[in-house]
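Before a colleague's protein record goes any further, I have to sign it off. What it holds is a sequence and that sequence's fold in token form. My question to you is simply how this chain folds and whether the tokens agree. Thanks in advance; the entry in question is below:
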Amino acid sequence: MNKISNIVVNVCRIILAATLILSGFVKAIDPRGTQYKIEDYLSALSLPGLMPEWMALTLSILLSALEFCLGVFLLMAIHRRTVSRLTLLLMAFMTVVSLWLWIANPVSDCGCFGDAIHLTNGQTLLKNIVLLVAAIVVCWRPLSMVRFISKTNQGIVINYTALFIVATSLYCLYNLPLFDFRPYHVGADIRKGMEIPETEEQPQFETTFILEKDGERKEFTLDNYPDSTWTFIDSKTVMTREGYVPPIHDFSIERIDTGDDITEEVLADTSYTFLLVAPMLENASDSDFGEIDQIYEYSQDNGYAFYCLTSSGDSGIERWRNLTGAEYPFCTCDATTLKTIIRSNPGLLLLKGGQVIRKWSHHFLPTAETLSAPLHQLPIGHLPEESPLRKIAKILLSFAVPLLALTIADRLWAWTRWLKRRRTTPKKPQGLQSPDSPDSPKGPDSPDSP
């Protein structure tokens, strides 16, 4: 019975560890995304603006670090009592939040796995209930978790894990997310992302017309639309049945100077197009405007289109022009869409035929030395050769290989000490030593071993 309970505890521990590591990592590589989700929650609670942007961003980094560290500590069985209790508290809180999401439905996606995995609120609640039960089991018998690292070297793993995940978040904040799970990732075809496949269920809408005759107003549909003696007043369209929503459904570009919608023109351009993306020019960094102007001049010299997409109004655009001397055309676009396209304010996008070729944070814009020839002759004018799977493997190995090497060395050291103790422990006459005797040697994997 004791062996079965130990197996159950360790299975629950592995499930919890794997989930927390995945959840923490995908949040850590996209700290801005988690910040936006926190702000969505505050808006749903009718508390917009309660938390300054820097505080929401700090909370985003700390939350992802907490989840990732707890997952690694559970996996390695570090500070088993403390970590199991903290995990139980975290899962209890998350379960309460997911119950609220399921009942009130303030947001459609909880964001527990960032943009990597999307769950409905019902799926999120079910997931958290399972994890809560696993956390209760682990907290019930924490010392049943088999150690993978000795007490002597626990501090190394703790510091290494915390440093790795916080450094990862800061790097992704300064540059761009290491992995982009959004529909505007490098290699994505925006036009295809806007399509609704014929096999998918189409959304259905119903339009109601409000008309007036002899001072009387009535509502009509297309089926019972009256004769011309009625005067049209207004109309409204509502969705009567939800259908397939394409990954990209709100991408629209309108030039400010002419008022023309140039979305199709931009996406159909078989040459290259630079898009400077700045959700809010009032908050955008103007420290790199010199490099931006050089890229604009380069695009003009080579016949490439260049637009600045923003959701700011006339005052924000005029302020930016005065600060930077910008001469490129400005276009309006939805703020949420712009935040989804790139996690930098401003950031730069390179399109060709509607496909995303490259993305840059304003800290890593291509320099004049890089733009030394037409784009089709340069590496940045083509999709990166490194596959996403290879990139994921490199990042995981950069953390896992040193940790695995430390674990192997630690276990070998613990095994050597156990063998040494066994050789030096004097043997007692048979029958005087019981298996539970305090003087009996312990194996390297026993709960009380190093």
